[in-house]
Structure prediction request, 474 residues.
Amino acid sequence: MLHDTQLLPRSHRREHMRAWKPGVLAPLLEPSIGDFIYRTPGAIVDLVRRHGSPLHLIRPDILQRNVHAMRAVLQRHIQHHEIFYGAKVNKSPALVRAAIDAGAGIDVSSPYELKDALRAGGDPRRMCASGPAKTPAFHADLVRHGVIVSLDSPQELSALESQMDAGPSVRRARVLLRYQPTLARNSRFGMPAQDVRDCLRRLARRPDQVDFLGFHFHLSGYACQDRVTALFELADVIGEARRLSLVPKIVNIGGGLPVRYVGADAYEAFLRQQGPDHYRNRKVPASFYPYGNRTDACAWLERFLTASGTDGQRVSTFLARQDLTLALEPGRSLADQAAFSVFAITRVKPLADRRCVIFIEGSSFSACETWFASEFLVDPILISSATATPADGVFPAYIAGHSCLDEDVLTNRLIEFPTVPQPGDLLVYANTGGYQMDLLENEFHRHPMPRRLVLDAGGGTTRAIPDTLDGDLR
Ligand SMILES: *Cc1c(COP(=O)(O)O)cnc(C)c1O
Prediction:
């Protein structure tokens, strides 16, 4: 089991702990999470003592608040809208349930995400499935439940058609066609306009089997203007669909709404002055996730809805005139602040050049952005004894996991700690809910999967309960 009372020294009693404010790239914290970390660091020590390290702490109420905030922006500008929570962003069932309770639909892109969303009480007609390589079994599930299927290619349409031909279905397949915007020509997702037109002609011949609902795209990157451009590119195929007597009802613009992790000024100042000496491997990473965004998801959405196309028409006006529902599939931005992760320090080891490495119990799989080609550029918050002496000058250290591979590093950047960290101290990585905490998690070295607990802050005290739909500990 993870349970390891040896890890945290007895001197680490809850009333003796202190969370130290980090320096250069301090995380932006939702106020109640900031209070929890800074006012009751001892409570976090107790949780790690009981549940082990790493420990992921989940706040479903914050995801709900994010849904409501985004919806409020949509309501100010357009009549018809739908938010699908991009469930792949985090494995927490409590977050899926929170999205459903807040009235969001769910983007389920595997049979397992579909199963979880159904178990959490989601309405399948308010779910949407993307992904380029759905299996026949997954298609069958989607059609049976009435989930919206985003068709990625003419080949996927053929597969779905043969499936519908093979066995009588009580339901029609509900489909969107995934368009490949011009600025994503080299992507493997979606189809160029010509293929979309071919699919439309094929769909027009099968109204009894397939219910065409509209169009979809999803772009990598976070640029608002790219989505505006892509949306107006759809005007042609929307017209084509109408000429074929199909009725487009939905345009789904995918996800990619930004998240702010650190203050924009601090971030820009850091980017200006960083150099090879700031990194353990003396390499400045080639690119970063834009951690110091100036816009949050709601401001981004506002900007999107009020942006104009080349003909001067606003996005909101275009949607109203075309009688279209705007659908979004935010993942990372709905999980913003809805989780954070805690790691216990096992060893602090001096290296050459007066640097140190801090080893944590856990691995970089529980806090990383590898698939986003980015270092997770936020300072961890140190929780240590309140009587620790402040560091004498600077104490630069990088943070490594417990595995035997050189690349198992949570933070390559040398962090300057306010006091010298000790074994048994904790590091809190803020805002890890958006892919960082569990996208790559596995049982490497046969270590068990880290635990997730839901924090319930009702009634003045914070309770921690297991993050499963049936309340069992894994
Ligand atoms: C991953 C994904 C999303 C979510 O993207 P975020 O950047 O997390 O908002 C939405 N739609 C599709 C099709 C995706 O693949």
About this structure: The longest strand covers residues 339-350. Residues 291 and 377 are 7 Å apart (CA to CA).
